[in-house]
Amino acid sequence: MNKFIKRTLIVVPTLAVAGVLTAGAAMASGWGHTGDHMSGHQGKMMGRHMVSKLDLTDAQEDAMKDMMQGQHSDAKDARQTMGMQFSELAKLESGSDAYIAKAKEIGVMQGERMGQRLIKQANMEAQMLALLTPEQVEKYHQMREEMAEHRAQKMKNHGKKGNHSS
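^ that's the sequence the OP posted. Answer follows.
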């Protein structure tokens, strides 16, 4: 079999798994829009939803936007670094000792980055909660609980035939 095809058969599924893991980690968190899958349009929708539901003041909204933009640029840098790592992996012969070593290195890096992302998310959420009034904090916790229930239901239905839109 051609080397290019062999590499493609290894690299494409590896990238797909990495994407699924990243999305899964983001979905598992309560403040998921800092994850890759919530950037862009979905993240803006989440922001508008929170502004509306929590009845944020202009100052609160501006402060949250600033926090989210910082998170977004950090995530972008991490994605670019990981992309370079996968490019290096693709250049190696799949199944070789060098390939396996590089794959292990990438796995360790991903685990460390996931831990760092979770810590950043927790810090960001604490900063956000500090901006809110007690009533807004209560409403936020309510919204977060509802999102967690919705996510749990979607995960329960994952892989089943039929309607997944709960």
